[in-house]
Amino acid sequence: MASALAAKMGFNSLLRKPARSFSVRICTMESDMEFSCEVKWKGKDLFDLVCRTLGLRETWFFGLQYNIKDTVAWLKMEKKVLDQEVPKEEPITFYFIAKFYPENAEEELVQDITQHLFFLQVKKKILEEEIHCPPEASVLLASYAVHAELNVASYASFVNASLFLAPVQVINLYQMTAEMWEERITACYAEHRGRTRDEAEMEYLKIAQDLDMYGVNYFLIRNKKGTDLLLGVDALGLHIYEPDNRLTPKCSFPWNEIRNISYSDKEFTIKPLDKKTNVFKFNSSRLRVNKLILQLCIGNHDLFMRRRRVDSLEVQQMKAQAREERARKQVERQRLQREKQLREEAERARDELERRLIQLQDEAHMANEALLRSEQTADLLAEKAQIAEEEAKLLAQKAAEAETEMQRIKVTAIRGQEERRLMEQKMLEAEMLALKMAEESERRAKEAEQLKQDLQEARDSERRAKNKLLEITSRTVYTVNDLRPPGGMPQELSFSRENLSFDFKDTDMKRLSMEIEKEKVEYMEKSKHLQEQLNELKTEIESLKLKERETSLDIIHNQNTEQGTSKQSNFKKVTAAEQSLRSAHMFFNIELIDFCFMISH
Fold this sequence. Notes:
By secondary structure, the protein is an alpha+beta fold. Helices cover 51% and strands 13% of the residues.
């Protein structure tokens, strides 16, 4: 009997079904994930699994949201997942998004993943116009979004960024083409060079957190008189709005001035800390909405009080690790920046060496041509001197012949008085001719002597040119060796007479002069204060605005700007970072060689 009973129990155990599971799809701002969950899992089990997968430790800002009928709800941490009103179709879709917003993103957001998820969520809300953004802020936010998402050194990597990174309502509000928007975004983007993606995302959040609708959850309510109103819940407190004005609250209840919040069925009651202040009561449309309002009130109030207490050990540890990581990244960035700067300087030095090498080769080629012309001129002068000497000899021979003729005429003069007179006249003419020919011979001799002197001077100049050329060559080798890169091998330059030239016109050599100047480049001043940038952008595009396309939120925002009234926060700070760039300039001066030969013909 016992063995039969044991066999039956074993058979029943084989027939028993394994524990059931269900699948879920988690949609984050960046990607989707799917998990297989056990039936007994609570909301916290699923939430912790998602946070571990993302490497997220600042879990108190986020939650799992799901759609239910015509509204949304948040998954409760203490209840089983399947015991809540979640969709029945598998995989069950949850949205992992920020449920609560920080008062000051720069001080509260510690992890990079937390900052990145907030950046994506806030940007999505601005582009979908769930958060109203004025045009001047849209341009600046678009430039930071471009830098954060592309993280490139050049704006040329993206086209028509304004169509994707600025709200459609803002683009349609102005008579501006996509190129005009890109031009303004480019001007802002150029000021962000050198920033990392994390820094660009933080600057985006610092600007976005000052927008009036940032972090506010709106709910339609009615007061005791039945008037339709909007209830806004955010990190600072509760705000009451007109239905058509979500920017300027009629009244506000900061969390530190609220003593109690309660609801019964559909009626909510807000009791201020000051008992003299009237109690505010309102009704909402559905019980499910009341629960959602209460969840947001409790969570925002808890975070409000938590910020004003000393950080827990976990948060202190996270902040210390974040500071160490930022310091390490800063050191790494500085190292990379130095390497980049040294590489750029080496490339500039190499380019300068190549430029100077080409310049010296051109100069040597010109000097060589000048030397060849000098040699040709010297040969021509020698030839002319030889011709002059031959002409002088010929004139001397003619002078001797004239003298002989004169003697012959004197001998024959005795033949007669008439002949004598005629002969005397001829002798006089011969003497005059001899005198002229003697003068011409003397002039030719002087000219030949002068040509000899010119020839000697030309040869001396040629010798000095050769010496100067040798001096240029030796000084060029010395200059290139001095400019060789650190650790590099010395470079030698060789010049031949075929590579050298000077410029001559006719027989006169002109003075060779080459001057090299390099002007210093001044960089434009760095970015101005954030508010000045916004005012400038607003002034630039104000004339292109189409008034008839303004929405009610645009009109209210303009009125608030003129009156100076808006939601205030003691923790909202916008700091503008400046980065100065240094540039190194190298100046090189090269001595020029002057040759001057005066050649007489």
